[in-house]
Amino acid sequence: MDTDEAVTQLRGWFTGRLPEGWFEGPLTVVLDREEIAVVGVLPEPSAESDVERAAMIDGLIGRFREETREQRIEIASEAERKFRRKVSWGVTCGGETVMFTTLSVPVMTRLRQSERQVLDTLVAAGVARSRSDALAWCVRLVGKHTDTWLADLRDALQHVDRVRAAGPRGMD
After folding, report:
1. Contact between 10 and 36 (Cβ < 8 Å)
2. Per-position pLDDT tens, the chain of length 172
3. How many CB atoms lie within 10 A of CB 14?
4. Which residues sit opposite 91 in a β-bridge?
5. How far is residue 127 CA from its own chain's centroid?
6. pLDDT for the residue 148
7. What is the sign, positive or negative, of the torsion defined by CA atoms of 105, 160, 83, 30?
């Protein structure tokens, strides 16, 4: 099963499993090797000012998080057994996305001295607390500035997966 099919299956399963009225519109499901992130859209509040609107969004997100906690834990436990990945939850309200839970997965990398010096400079300058935080900061920065390129690359990889799946068997 390719990534698109897996995401479609997961979106369907979560949509069928979630209580009615939790979210407006379709869920966003993001999948990787370790985690399933499920993000739903909360109704956007109407307010008289930007300050009031921001406070209402903060309140709506907080209320949703508290009122749904036990059910989200129950659904996540069921999904984790079924799909063998951890589940993270988040919501979008008024254009702001807040993740309630996410995994922080260690990754191993080998860096040359010049690359380590970049991380050490970020730590020395107080931008990051550690080399690990500095590397995560760098990855977020690259992701932020190359969103379109990364999306194109992911699309190309999905196309490669589909072509491989349609190809002859026994070549592994």
Report:
1. yes
2. 677 888 999 999 999 999 999 999 999 999 998 999 999 999 988 888 989 999 999 999 999 999 999 999 999 999 999 999 999 999 999 888 999 988 888 888 899 999 999 999 999 999 999 999 999 999 988 888 888 888 888 888 888 888 888 888 765 5
3. 19
4. 40, 98
5. 24
6. 84
7. positive
Tokens of 167: 């190809």
- Is 95 in a helix, a strand, or coil? coil
Token pair listed for 53: 């609107």
- Structure tokens belonging to residue 75: 């659904």
Can you read off the two tokens belonging to residue 29? 């499901």
Give the contacts of 82 (CB within 8 A, at least 6 positions apart): 13
Taking 3-state DSSP, the helix, strand and coil percentages for the chain, each rounded to the nearest 5, stand at 55, 15, 30
* Angle value at C-alpha 48, between 28 and 58, nearest 5 degrees: 40
Judge whether 120 and 135 are in contact, CB under 8 Å. no
Closest CA to 87 of 78, 96, 20: 78
Burial, 61: exposed, middle or buried (Cβ in 10 Å; 0-12, 13-18, 19+)? buried
One-letter amino acid of 145: H
